[in-house]
Amino acid sequence: METKNIFSESGIIITIILISIPLIIASIILIIKAYAILDKYLKKKKLEKFNEYLKGLDPEEVKKLEIRKRELEFALTNAELGGVSPAVDNKGLINNVNEVEGFRFIEQKRKSQPRPYIGTELTNLILWYLGCATFWLLFGTTIGEYLGIKFVAPDVDHYSWLSFGRLRPVHTNAVFWGWASLAMIGLGYYVVPRVSNTPINSVKTVYYSLILINASVIIGTICLMAGINNGGGEYREYIWPVMALFGVGVFITLLNYVKTVAKKTTKEIYVSNWYIVAAMMYVLVIAIVAYWPSWQNGLGETIVQGYYMHQGVGMWFMLFTLGLMYYFLPQQLNKPIYSYSLGILAFWTQILFYTLIGTHHFIFSAIPWWLQTVAIVGSVGMVIPVVAGTTNFLMTFKGSWHKLASSYTLPFYLIGIIFYFTGSLQGTAEAFRFTNLVWHFTDFTVAHSHLTMYGIICFMLWGFIYTLVPRLTGKEPSQVLVGAHFWLALIGLLFYTFPLMYGSTLRGLMWIEGKPFIDSVELMAPYWLWRAIGGSLMWLSHILFAYNFYVMIKANTDAPIPTSAIDILRAKQELDKQEMDNQGLTN
Question: Model pTM?
Answer without folding.
Answer: 0.80
